[in-house]
Each structure stands twice: as structure tokens, then as C-alpha cells.
Amino acid sequence: MTQQDLSQQDLSIPVMRERIEFKPKFVERYTQLTDFESFKTASLAYIRKCIRVNTLKSSVPEIKKRLNKDWDLKPVPWCKEGLWIEYKHPDSSGRKRRDIGNLLEHALGYFYVQEAASMIPPVVLQPKKDSTVLDLCAAPGSKTTQIASMMGNTGLIVANDLDMNRLASLGLNIQRCGLTNTVVTKMYGQQFKRCNLQFDFILADVVCSGTGTIRKSLQVLEQWSPGLVQRMVKEQKSLARTAFEKLAPRGTMVYSTCTMEPEENEGVVQFLLDTFDNLKLEKITLPLKRSPTIDSFEGATYSSEIKKCLRIWPQDNDTEGFFVAKIKKVK
Q1: What is the mean pLDDT of residues 287-292?
Q2: What is the residue-wise DSSP string for 85-105?
Q3: 331 to each of 37, 129, 247, 249, how far by Cα in Å?
């Protein structure tokens, strides 16, 4: 298949998204949480393509120079390596190329195709050079490679996941992006309890119900149910607890999800606050539009400290929805 063939097969082909139905219980819940029509409109819109420059191999000026002829590049305000990318030359029907992953620069590891909101957790974590980092749920590697880039390939990153298919993608992305400070492990995150090593920084970007990512995968709507949310919460609390226990004194942990469910976000952070007396939340300040965290929902009330966390809906910044908490171990 030629490069031209590849470029034509991933055009932005219209999909009858207006026919997508939301489950009545979903509508009921989300009407309580946000302006549902705005959320629905944003969730059914196509996601903006975005890349993150891999500074281990290239630079933002170099990527702009290489791609500027055919692509419009706009900076992501909260990540200096992030660029929204759009093809300049639509065809006769107005469709534009979207196959960014077929570009030579991607194959060479000069950039990573990564949604803009997904870049937030490593930016909040701010790992230092020569530190030890645990990426608890790492595959397929967008945040792992971002963390390694921020660390300049120094120190140690333990990138863990359980799913073999996802681990294969993680390994390929680690190689493509030129990481030399990263080891991959395959285990349940909770098994790190048996590990004697403590980590200076931990990213717990945990498995979730994914309701912030409907615009990327409409299957989220089919799979969603209150029962799924409750199963996710049980796993998330267990992973978050393990992560904090493996955090070194005065270390930093980020807990994040791409769901908008309060039980999976504010509820898990409240669980950590109730469980540990040496845990402190730090306020997240980034140049983006944010929505208030949830104070209470379906009988649960959350600490005012949780207002320090970041909650963004898809309609806030024309991205995926995300929740991010920055956590310090004070002793």
C-alpha cells in the first residue's frame, strides 16, 4: 500500500452520530452533574487530533518546520510540547487527512499522537530528573513516554500493566520513542505491595468507566451501567491505596481518570483522605477552563479539600473529560 493510499483511508468520514442514544439512567445521572445538552454535543463531536513532541528525539521548532507545509499546528496551552494538528488541504468534498500516525515523523518517534487532556496528569506530576517513578497502569504508553521525556531519560520508570495486548503496544512505543530509563512489568497493580522499593513519583491513571472519552469511542455508551461504575470504584480504591502506600515520604502522586463519575473521582480521593492521615492534596493550577468538583452526589458528601482537584468536562476545552488529583505524602 502506498503512502497516498494510506493517507486516503483515514479521512474524516461522517458518521450518523446524531442517531446515538443515551441510556435513560445515564441521562438522569448526568443531568444532575452538568449541562447535559452541552455535554452531549461535545461528546458526539469528533475529537481534535493532537500530538506531543518527543523531546528525546526532536523539538517543537523542528516539528513545526517539518510539518508546517501541510499541517496547521496550534499550541496546547497546558503542555508546551503539545500541538493540535489539522491538515491544510481538504479534498473536493471538504474531507481532511487524519492519519497522523502514518507520518514519517511518527514512525521515527519524533512525536506521539496523544489527546490534549491526556497530557495533563504528567504535567501535574512534574517528575524530576534522576528520580524513581511508578506508572501503575501504563499501557499503551502515552504518559510513560511523556514522563520519560520530562526526565530526559534519567532515573528509573517502572511501567506496569496487566493486559498483554496493551503491553505489546507499550513496548513498541517505548522503543519507538527511544526510552532507556524504563522497565516494563506485568502484574496486578496491587501486587506492588510486595515490592520493597518506594517511589518518588507515582502516576495512578487508573482503569475507569471512560465517560469522558465518548467522542473517541462510542462503545463507552453501550458498556456504561451503574453496576460497571461500582465495579470500577472497588478496583480504583484498591489501586489508589496501594499507590499511596508505595509512595516515598514527601513524594508526589497523581490520581487521574478519564471518567466523569463522582464515585470514581471525588469518591476515591475522599477514600484516600479518610484512610491516610499523612496525605495532603495540592491545588492544581493550569491555563485551561475548569469546572467545579462535585460537592455531593447520591447521598455521598465530599471534603472541601477536593476542590483543589481538577475536573474538566469535554465541553470545557473541546477535549476529552478528565479528573486529576495531586497528592503529597507529608511524612
Answers
A1: 98
A2: EEES---TTS-----GGGSHH
A3: 45, 22, 10, 5
Compute the average pLDDT of residues 233-253.
Answer: 98
Q: Please give the grid coordinates belonging to residue 197.
A: 522499593
Separation of alpha carbons 211 and 257, rounded Å: 10
Architecture of domain 117-329: 3-Layer(aba) Sandwich (3.40)
The alpha carbons of the chain give a radius of gyration, in whole angstroms, of: 20
Contact 23, 224 (CB under 8 A): yes
Residues 6+ apart with CB under 8 A from 299: none
Per-domain residue ranges of the chain: 117-329
Sort strands 199-205 and 322-329 into parallel, antiparallel or unpaired.
unpaired
- Per this entry, what is the length of the chain? 331
Q: What angle do CA 272, 276, 278 make, to 5 degrees?
A: 120
Using one digit for the tens of pLDDT, what is the confidence trace for 63-92? 999 999 999 999 999 999 999 999 999 988
Q: Helix 36-43 crosses helix 24-33 at what angle (to 10 degrees)?
A: 120
Q: For the sheet with 50-53, list strands across it.
A: 71-76, 79-87, 50-53, 111-113
Q: What average pLDDT does range 260-288 have in this prediction?
A: 98
Per DSSP bridges, beta strands 199-205 and 132-135 are parallel
CA torsion 135→138→142→144, rounded to 10°?
A: 30
Q: Active-site positions?
A: 258
Question: In the structure grid, which three cell numbers stand for residue 287, read together?
Answer: 491555563
Q: Which of 286, 316, 331, 328 is nearest to 77 (CA)?
A: 286
How many C-beta atoms lie closer than 10 Å to residue 22's C-beta? 17
pTM of the model: 0.93
Reference 50, options 144, 136, 146, 150; nearest CA is 146
Residue with cell 514522563: 147
pLDDT, tens only, 128-153? 999 999 999 999 999 999 999 999 99
